[in-house]
Amino acid sequence: MSYAGQQQADIYTDLYPTDRVRLSSQTPFTPRFVQENVTRSSDPAHVYASRVQGRQLLLDNPSRDSAAAKKKRESKKTRKTSQKAGVVGSKELGSKAVWKLTATKFKSFLPLHQLWLDYMSELLGLSNAPPSLPGKVDDSAMPSTATMHAKLVKADLHGAFITVKQSKNPCLVGLSGVVIHETENAFKIVTRADKMRLIPKPNSIFVLKVPLYSTQAPEHQQPAASTSTSGSPEVSDVAQTKIVQDIPHIEFDLYGNQFCFRSADRASRKFKPKETIEL
């Protein structure tokens, strides 16, 4: 504005009288404001009806649960489900000393080993042994190892008879026994000398022996058992002392570095064939 214009303006003059607007539910502010200020459109009412009416504007971000609170809630839900199902956690098992054995006799775990042999016979679908075994087993009796590998990596090894073939700890080489407890990173076995040993899986190679023929009794035969004075059947002494080494068997090498999983985790895990590196 020029200096002459500033001289002509009277700053003390009364302001132009404005209309007092009364707003109500019948005449809301938003439609009137939009229609009065939208001057570029030929139909302000249509612009309001199509772009403004019924729309909601968020003035603040909606409240969300934090990741920690969500994780805590899921953990609480899982714990309640486990308690309802009667599942006992590893910490509770350790506090109750469930896995601490008072007696570690090798003969006491031979029935468990016999159950594992029957379990392997059913899992692998092994055929019955011929009536008379020759001095040398025929190669045609050997089952397909391609189908056995996929089943063995998911099998339960509690009761299996394993031997340490190689290890970075030379004191462990040659140890063998029945597996009584398998964890993610170790095998707990009972040896023939009635000693319990904890063998780590990493940096070790184990030999797993599987029966060549089925150890299950035929359906038309009764299992060899003797009846005690109390009337309960007992397994014969011959069946108790027989292990997988005493019968025709197949040997597999287990690489501990690729076997560091719990028994329950291996059952639901998909293993991919790959080359392994020896120690």
TrEMBL record:
Keywords tagged on the record: Cytoplasm, Endonuclease, Hydrolase, Nuclease, Nucleus, tRNA processing
Coiled coil: none
Organism: Steccherinum ochraceum
GO molecular function: endonuclease activity; hydrolase activity; ribonuclease P RNA binding
Primary location recorded for the protein, binned into one broad class: nucleus
Biological process annotations from GO: rRNA processing; tRNA 5'-leader removal
Xref: Pfam families: RNase_P-MRP_p29
UniProt feature, compositional bias: Basic residues: 69-82
Record bears the keyword tRNA processing: yes
GO CC annotation terms, alphabetical: nucleus; ribonuclease MRP complex; ribonuclease P complex
Subcellular localization(s) per the UniProt record: Nucleus
Region annotation Disordered: where it falls in the sequence: 60-87, 218-237
Family: Belongs to the eukaryotic/archaeal RNase P protein component 1 family.
This protein's name: Ribonuclease P protein subunit
HAMAP family: RNase_P_1 (MF_00754)
